[in-house]
Structure formats: C-alpha cells, structure tokens
Specification:
The complex is a heterodimer of chains A (205) and B (96). Chain A is of the alpha+beta class and 205 residues long. Chain A is built from six helices and six strands. Chain A has two domains: 76 residues, no CATH class; 105 residues, 3-Layer(aba) Sandwich (Rossmann fold), CATH 3.40.50.300. Classes of the chains: A alpha+beta (205), B mainly alpha (96).
Chain lengths: 205, 96
C-alpha cells in the first residue's frame, strides 16, 4: 500500500460511483459521491430509503466493489478505480467494525463466542480473546447472558452482542449501517453511546 | 447442509474468516457426520446380527474398506459445499 499522508482526513471519498446491473436494467446507486471525515469525527448519513447510504458504507467497508472513484482511509489508498489493498478480508477483520440493522450473529455460537471469534481470527489466543469478549459484555451490560445461545437472546441483547463484536478488534473505523430497530437514546449501550465511548476510550492494540 | 448455512458463511467471510478455515469447517463437518454414520452402522451390524436368521460374514478388511469408501464419499460430498461457500459474496450477508 502507498504511504499514509498524516495531513489527510481519516476518510476521503472522491467521485465514487457504483452501478448495479448492466444495460437497460442498470441502476446507478452512487454517482460521483465525495466525502471527507476528520479523525475522531462522528458523522451520520441521513437520507430516504434507497438513497444508497448502505451502498456507500459497503464500498467504504470493502464489501462491495465500487464502479469507479477513489477511497482513502487514514491517508492510505483503499480503492483507486480498483482495489489497492490485497487482503480486504483482513482489513475488515482488523480495522473496520460493522454494525448492521440486524445483528447477523452466528447462530451456532453463543454470545461470548460470537465476540471472541474476531480476536481469534486475528490470531490472538483463546484466553485473551475470551477476556476481550467478557470485557465488552461487561461494557454493554450483558455479561449475565454470556453463555446464552443466540436464539435465547432478545432482539436488544442480540444487537448489543453485534456491537461488541464490531468493537472486538479495536477497529480504527466503525460503520454502523442504519440504526438498530430498538433505539433508546438514553441507554448507555446504544449504538451512539458505544460509538462515542469507542471514539473517546482506549483503543490501544 | 452447507446450502442452508450460506448466510452464516457470508457473515463469517464478512468479519474476515479466511477461505481455508471455512473449507476446513465444512470438510470436518462432512467427515464427522460420515464417521458417526459409519460407527452407528458398525454397532448395529455387531449387536443386531444375531437377531437375523441369515448372516453375512464381514472380515476386518471389509470393515476397513467400508470405512475408506465412507470417507471418500464424505470428502467428495463436501467439495460441492466448499465450492458454494467460497462462491458466496460476503455482502450477501447483509442484503443490498
């Protein structure tokens, strides 16, 4: 990857485009989208359903291939009319935390395992990974449900586990795509509260 | 079985699980199920045989041959699952 430029914004998107399909059925979801986000800034994308907010975040998260444009994260080029980062799966695992509208947890793992899998995939030991998972379960106030299977958790609890999983590897960026269905602004474990804590709290690796 | 778990596999890929680990999980599941089936069959043959009027002689080498055939079938069957798992895009976990 090219060297990082420390003076650049944390997220820089230039003329990003994304077209789904081809020919007469082609749909241009993104057309020359540009965006700059400074380090430590929490930014919300607002727009009606179908306005490609999720598509933009999927491109930023190296999940969906853009059709053109440029993405730089932390001063490093991620996409420049083609992916510049060879191991995008490792990028997602180590540096980006995804929080989706639905939790998308692994049903055959319990709550702790769903969180600990991230550090374990990164190569951390089992003990260390479970310690990190328990720390996040404490933060999100669901330690008492640590060994519960996913189908035994309520929707709120599943969402909290999903937030914990997103933060498990101390990601540099966090993409919460769409607010969780049960949004309670005053609760300390809300998406917004977690993002602020994540931004301000210790993120040492 | 893999076909019914494509969504979970897409989630695993989304959070960074390498392909070789996913392939290994599917292979272990296929071989494990094959071994459970083989052992169940072997126990049934051993303990229920006296209940039947006619007997088929199974030598130890026949048992080993049956085990080898079971494992080969399981490995071949897992190839289709592994192919499907490696093909599924991570973005499919979260829809459009």
């Amino acid at each position: 990857m090219p060297r990082a430029n420390v003076n650049e914004p944390a997220i820089l998107v230039e003329n990003l485009s994304k077209t789904y399909g081809r020919g007469d059925t082609a749909v241009q979801a993104l057309k020359n989208a540009s965006l700059q986000v400074a380090a430590g800034e929490v930014v919300g994308l607002l727009g009606p359903s179908g306005s490609s907010k999720t598509t933009l975040l999927q491109c930023l998260g190296a999940i969906t291939d853009p059709s053109g444009g440029r993405i730089r994260l932390g001063g490093q080029t991620l996409y420049d009319n083609g992916w510049q980062y060879s191991n995008r799966r490792a990028l997602r695992r180590d540096q980006i935390g995804f929080i989706f509208q639905r939790p998308y947890l692994i049903p055959f793992l319990d709550a702790t395992e769903n969180i600990a899998i991230l550090p374990m995939l990164q190569g951390q030991g089992r003990k260390q990974s479970y310690a990190r998972a328990n720390e996040l379960l404490d933060t999100l106030d669901i330690r008492h449900r640590a060994s519960a299977r996913i189908e035994e958790l309520s929707g709120e609890e599943q969402q909290r586990v999903a937030i914990a999983r997103a933060l498990a590897n101390h990601p540099r960026w966090c993409w919460p795509t769409n607010r969780p269905p049960r949004w309670t602004a005053s609760a300390p474990w809300t998406l917004c509260g977690c993002c602020m804590k994540w931004r301000n709290g210790p993120t040492q690796r | 079985m893999t076909q019914t778990k494509l969504k979970e596999i897409a989630v695993l890929k989304l959070i960074g699980t390498p392909d070789r680990l996913i392939a290994r999980m599917i292979l272990i599941e296929a071989v494990g199920l094959g071994l459970i089936g083989f052992l169940t069959g072997k126990l049934a043959v051993s303990y229920w045989a006296p209940l039947f009027p006619k007997h088929v002689v199974m030598l130890p080498e026949d048992t080993l041959r049956a085990l080898a055939i079971t494992l080969v079938i399981c490995i071949l069957a897992s190839v289709a699952g592994i192919r499907a798992a490696l093909w599924v895009p991570p973005g499919s976990a979260i829809g459009g």
